[in-house]
Specification:
496 residues, mainly beta, Immunoglobulin-like, 3 domains, 6-stranded mixed beta sheet, 5-stranded antiparallel beta sheet, 29% strand, extended, disordered N terminus
Length: 496
């Protein structure tokens, strides 16, 4: 930048675009399903990430006691905050501070750097870092805002100063015109350091530095799904011999194609008892999901019931609870991925029972007096089966982010045939191939109908022609001479 820039023209234009990826989005920064976040005062966390509060409590996290609300405060509560207890402010979801004066994502811009503040909720134990720079310590936000250079002294939470020209974590997208230089960087807030979920957050921070003229300060807020880059990986499936089969299903109960799913989509694990002369029922006792590269893991099912970690990957249509359906157990949750890996390895223990054993009848008993299951490792050699035992079922899936599906969509020749009828509902991302297929089918249908009509018309014409000639021949045969003519012609008699 020019060193002789007119100070009078040095007006900082700081824009924070806050983007949050979550299902049932209610606010830009609150979801009670996140790790370390929840509903207080006995509030209930709903599947869409909102709180249902009990009697005499309200607010996005049920922290505000209704009976303590007061109409006025010594200090005016800003940005939609509520006054309570004659002098305190309960801030709206996206603000914090004594008078709710700070946004939970804020930035101070200077001519050569920006200082960013992120204030997560409650007992935050995750990690905040510059996008794609997770392993760089200098690009990780400090949890003591007071030691961050350039930070507002009234800020709280996490902070980081980023130089525009920093080759380590600057990574800025710079654009320039005649009046302004604009610097843009993305910041990721992960609520669990060993896994990435669809309810994590990504913020885009923009600082615009005027080079001439007077330019007003402005800001805006928008939303996007977390995860934009493509990290492709090959797909492999692991399996072992077992009387229990494991199937991965989509939200419409169809088989997961190539064991690949999009981040945030509903996925179903279906454990089914293979037909057996002695075994009659099964029970999912435990299930964990692991990062195959680091062995980080989360518990989905424990002692036959929903594990605590499963709360982070639930939705309105996938509550994370194992449910028995006949000779199967169904487990639904939203797809997630671990940090630095697109693959998720599942290891689940399933108990199989004979008819006389009732321990498999109930998937998640009300009481917790259940012994911890003993895992029976799966081997490649078949063995004589005990009466009641557990089987370990393992499998591997690939979780891709939204933009990744566009890169792996195959390019097909326009002259190729359309998919079968049961595949036509799977419309490609750009929609053009499906439209072409439907148009080709419509044209083919019209041609077939026209051909049938032409054949029918020819048949009708042939029938009419045959009928015409038959009638004509009949009229010729029926012609007889008049009686007067017949009388003039007699056969002479001959006398012998």
């Amino acid at each position: 930048m020019a060193k002789n820039r007119n100070i009078g023209l040095y007006i900082q234009l700081c824009v924070v675009i806050y983007l949050a990826a979550q299902y049932g989005l209610v606010s830009a920064s609150f979801n009670c399903q996140r790790n370390g976040v929840g509903c207080v005062n006995s509030g209930t966390c709903n599947a869409n990430g909102t709180c249902s509060c009990g009697t005499d409590f309200e607010g996005f996290d049920c922290r505000l006691r209704t009976s303590l609300k007061t109409p006025t405060c010594d200090s005016t509560c800003k940005n939609g905050g509520s006054c309570y207890n004659n002098g305190f402010c309960y801030c709206s979801v996206d603000y914090y501070g004594t008078t709710c004066e700070h946004q939970r994502v804020s930035v101070n811009c200077t001519e050569d750097s920006m200082t960013v503040n992120v204030k997560p909720y409650d007992s935050f134990t995750g990690k905040i870092f510059v996008y794609s720079k997770r392993t760089e310590d200098s690009c990780t936000f400090k949890n003591d805002i007071t030691v961050v250079e350039g930070a507002d002294p009234t800020w709280h939470g996490y902070g980081l100063k980023i130089q525009y020209m920093n080759s380590i974590c600057g990574n800025f997208n710079k654009t320039s015109n005649e009046t302004m230089d604009t610097f843009e960087v993305k910041v990721v807030t992960e609520y669990n350091q060993i896994m990435i979920t669809s309810i994590d957050e990504i913020s885009t921070i923009i600082c615009s530095i005027p080079t001439s003229g007077n330019i007003p300060v402005s800001s805006s807020i928008s939303e996007i799904t977390y995860g934009e880059n493509v990290y492709q990986s090959t797909n492999t499936v692991e399996d072992t011999y077992s009387p229990v089969s494991l199937a991965f299903l989509t939200v419409d109960n169809t088989a997961l194609k190539d064991n690949t799913v999009q981040l945030g989509d509903v996925i179903t694990l279906k454990f089914t008892l293979v037909q057996s002369p002695t075994l009659t029922s099964l029970k999912l006792t435990s299930c964990t999901a692991k990062n195959p590269t680091t062995n980080d893991s989360i518990t989905l099912v424990s002692n036959g019931c929903k594990g605590d970690d499963a709360n982070q990957i639930t939705s309105a249509t996938a509550n994370g609870k194992p449910v028995k359906e006949g000779n199967s157990v169904i487990l639904k949750f939203t797809a997630f991925k671990f940090v630095a890996s697109n693959q998720v390895a599942f290891s689940c223990n399933v108990k199989v029972c004979v008819q006389s054993d009732t321990s498999c009848n109930e998937q998640c008993p009300d009481t917790a007096s259940i012994a911890t299951p003993t895992t029976t490792p799966a081997t490649a050699v078949r063995r004589k089966r005990a009466v009641d035992q557990e089987e370990t079922v393992t499998a591997l899936i690939t979780v891709i982010e939204n933009s990744e599906t566009e890169t792996i969509t195959p390019i097909t020749d326009s002259r190729s045939t359309c998919p079968p009828n049961n595949e036509t509902s799977q419309q490609p991302h750009d929609g053009t191939s499906a439209i072409g297929c439907f148009q080709n089918k419509e044209i083919l249908t019209v041609i077939v109908i026209l051909a049938l009509m032409l054949v029918m018309a020819l048949i009708v014409v042939m029938v009419l022609i045959v009928h015409y000639f038959r009638q004509k021949d009949a009229k010729v045969c029926d012609i007889q001479p008049p009686q007067e003519v017949l009388r003039q012609f007699t056969i002479p008699r001959v006398n012998i």
